[in-house]
Amino acid sequence: MTTPTTEPAIIVAGDTISWLRSLADFPATSGWTLKYRLLNASAKIEITAGASGADHLVQIPAATSKDYPAGAYDWTAWVEAGAERLTVASSRMIVKPNLATLNTYDGRSDARKSLEALQAAYQTYITGGNAHVAEYEIAGRRMKFHSAVEILNQIEYWQNKVNAEDRAARIASGQKPKNKIRVRF
User: Fold this and answer.
1) CA atoms within 13 A on the CB side of 108
2) CB under 8 Å to 27, separation ≥6 — which residues?
3) Please, which residues bridge with residue 74 across strands?
4) Contacts of 71 (CB under 8 A, 6+ apart)
5) Tens digit of pLDDT for each residue in 86-120?
6) What would the 3-class secondary structure string for the chain be?
7) Fewer CB within 10 Å, N- or C-terminus of the chain?
8) CA-to-CA distance for 76 and 67, rounded, in angstroms?
């Protein structure tokens, strides 16, 4: 297996992860060390590359990556030699969960969760027997329900978001999008 020469955009917790960075201006043979920090609102991951000749080799064993919390991270890479420190790259990386070790997992996007919740709310609205009640007040506390039209507008909004996600996922996996219109003359 060939070692990638760039940072991965996506890694999976629990996998063995490696990449090789060649930094001509900051070779490992001149004492430069390459370091990474991945950061999001709830976690921080620190990585230090080792030397592979003049290049910098990142090797993360599965036993280490298994503890990486899933999520989207902003990362920065820098080199250090003595008292010198210089940033050399930054970007974003996704850490996917290790599904092989999970008992439960909800991989739905926020858009899909919102859509499904709204569809359930609409179903309750139309079958609940109180579809005609727009609002009520008891002991000075008022409750106002969304109308069917308002719920349907939200369903349409989130359905469009989910459709866009599905299209992007099909394209990313090499499939053709399903939004073709066929016309016969």
Assistant:
1) 13
2) 54, 55
3) 39, 92
4) 40, 42, 43, 94, 95
5) 999 999 999 999 988 888 888 888 899 999 999 99
6) CCCCCCCCCEEECCCCEEEEECCCCCCHHHCCEEEEEEECCCCEEEEECEEECCEEEEEECHHHHCCCCCEEEEEEEEEEECCEEEEEEEEEEEEECCHHHCCCCCCCCHHHHHHHHHHHHHHHHHHCCCCCCCEEEECCEEEECCCHHHHHHHHHHHHHHHHHHHHHHHHHCCCCCCCCCCCCC
7) C
8) 20
Tokens of 180: 């073709």
Residue positions counted in the chain: 185
Please tell me the distance from the alpha carbon of residue 34 to that of residue 171, in angstroms, as a whole number.
34
And the tokens for 139?
């002991």
**Could you read off the pLDDT of 122-153 as tens digits, one per residue?**
888 788 755 566 777 899 898 887 778 888 99
The answer to whether 155 and 118 have CB atoms below 8 angstroms apart is yes
